[in-house]
Amino acid sequence: MSAEAETLQLDIPQYMQGVGVRARAASRDIGRANSGRKDAALHAIANAIETGADRLKAENDKDMAAGRQHGLDAALLDRLELNDARIAAMAEGLREMALLPDPVGSISDMNYRPSGIQVGRMRVPLGVIGIIYESRPNVTADAAGLCLKSGNAAILRGGSEAIHSNQAIAAFIHQGLSEAGLPADVVQVIETTDRAAVGELVRMQDYVDVIVPRGGKGLIERISAESRVAVIKHLHGVCHTYIDDTADIDKAVRVSVNAKTQRYGTCNTMETLLVAESVAADVLPDLCAHLESEGVELRGCEKTRAIMEEVKAATDEDWDTEYLAPILSIRVVDGIDAAIDHINTHSSQHTESIITENYTRARQFLREVDSSSVMVNASTRFADGFEYGLGAEIGISTDKLHARGPVGLEGLTSQKYVVLGDGHIRT
Fold first, then answer.
1. Do residues 172 and 52 make contact, with C-beta atoms less than 8 angstroms apart?
2. Angle formed by the axes of helices 35-51 and 84-99, to 10°?
3. pLDDT tens per residue across span 331-377
4. Which of the 8 DSSP states describes residue 220?
5. Do residues 50 and 87 lie in contact, with contact meaning Cβ atoms separated by under 8 Å?
6. Closest CA to 296 of 268, 319, 324
7. What is 341-361 written as a DSSP string?
8. 297 pLDDT exceeds 90?
């Protein structure tokens, strides 16, 4: 942290007021920047991150050491770590954003009206986006890139546990912006770890247009309750996989194991497995063996435990829990209707998947499950902006307004009506 920021911590309202003023001014600059300049900045930031990888890992090591000292659990440490693959992925994500169509200025749905005017809608930036997040320093690069490409200024406030990593990434972002001839204030990464800065940010309705919180349920509930600015949010990820009685067993095992074990500390990791009763005895022994070999603790309903005696008894709380850990709850259900009822009762409306070979069942699941991503014969781990071709995501919204699911470039824009006439007057 800079000496200036340490001093400014003594007057957080004044510090944040300055951030807001600069962000609003920068939003006008980036809002009118052409695609070529924005893409040049994305490439320059990616190059700076790759060139500075050793420095970034050194700063991340400081955060990891502090995290261990303060007792962060394995899932949080996993989110915090930046290794060569994750640094390369950050750069790749930025370059992929540069290849995506620029949504800003695109006009759609132009139609002639009886009066002779043409009416359509144009994509425009939201303005200034405040993003509050925990642990994952790669969010700093992803969020900066998405806001930049969509023509928005960004105020980024990462968690105190990632302060060294985030400030290193911020330096690379400012280097790339400078090389592209854009002002550094297009992306501001808050330098103070004082939590009062968050309280100020969510009340800055004169300078901030949207708040996006990314982190644990407690953080998001706090932001949603305190914010005077519109919030795009998801509270948590209680994701389900349902194995239908028409499922291919090998496919079901492979997909379910991946959905749980590919990575534990993410919001799109499967937390509850539902299995149709008629195939449970065929599916569970092999599936549980694979999961247990990966060190997953299994908790099941009475019907599950009747088949797999070694499985621990699940409680009512388990069906509503986002573990973010190698723990899985398993429930045997009568069939697809019972599975959908369980999901719509206990899901956080994030991501759900059905494993089935029956087209009608697949269509029913897609239609009746009320979540932001619904899948057929695929791992819930695919619920990700990068995997969806968005380049990256600002977060995964489980709201129904203004965006739902992975929020990429289009989700960071709004629309305004445009009217084309030739001296037309209303009579």
1. yes
2. 170
3. 999 999 999 999 999 999 999 999 999 999 999 999 999 999 999 99
4. H
5. yes
6. 324
7. HHHHHH--SSEEEEE-S-HHH
8. yes
String of DSSP letters for 22-37: HHHHHHHHHHT--HHH
Residue (of 167, 219, 151) closest to 4 by Cα position = 167
**CA–CA distance, 301 with 313 (Å, rounded to integer):** 6
Residue type, 347: S
Place of tokens 């700076």: 48
Instruction: Tell me the three-class secondary structure of 387-400, residue by residue.
Output: CCCCCCCCCEECCC
The C-alpha torsion from 370 through 374 and 377 to 381, rounded to 10°, is -120
Residue with tokens 């500075």: 52
Contact in structure between 291 and 406 (CB atoms under 8 Å):
no
Sheet of strand 107-112: strand arrangement: 107-112, 118-125, 413-420
Q: Is the pLDDT of residue 391 over 70?
A: no
The pLDDT value given to residue 346:
97
What is the spatial distance between Cα 258 and Cα 387, in angstroms, rounded to a whole number? 15
Tell me how far apart the alpha carbons of residues 227 and 211 are, in angstroms, rounded to a whole number.
Answer: 8
Cβ atoms of 363 and 300 closer than 8 Å: no
CA-to-CA separations, 245 to 5, 270, 346, in angstroms, rounded: 60, 19, 21
Q: What angle do CA 129, 134, 136 make, to 5 degrees?
A: 95
pLDDT tens digits, 163-213: 999 999 999 999 999 999 999 999 999 999 999 999 999 999 999 999 999
Amino acid (1-letter code) at residue 401: L
Three-state DSSP class for residue 305: helix
| Integer Cα distance of 211 and 230 in angstroms | 6
Catalogue the E-assigned strands of 26-180. 107-112, 118-125, 128-133, 153-157
Burial bucket for residue 297 (CB in 10 Å: 0-12, 13-18, 19+):
middle
Cα of 350 vs its chain's centroid, Å: 11
Query: In residues, how long is the chain?
Result: 427
> How crowded is residue 313: how many other Cβ atoms within 10 Å of its Cβ?
11
Side chain identity at 342, as an amino acid letter?
H
| 314 vs 64: CA distance, rounded Å | 34
**What phi and psi values does residue 121 have, to the nearest 5 degrees?**
-130, 140
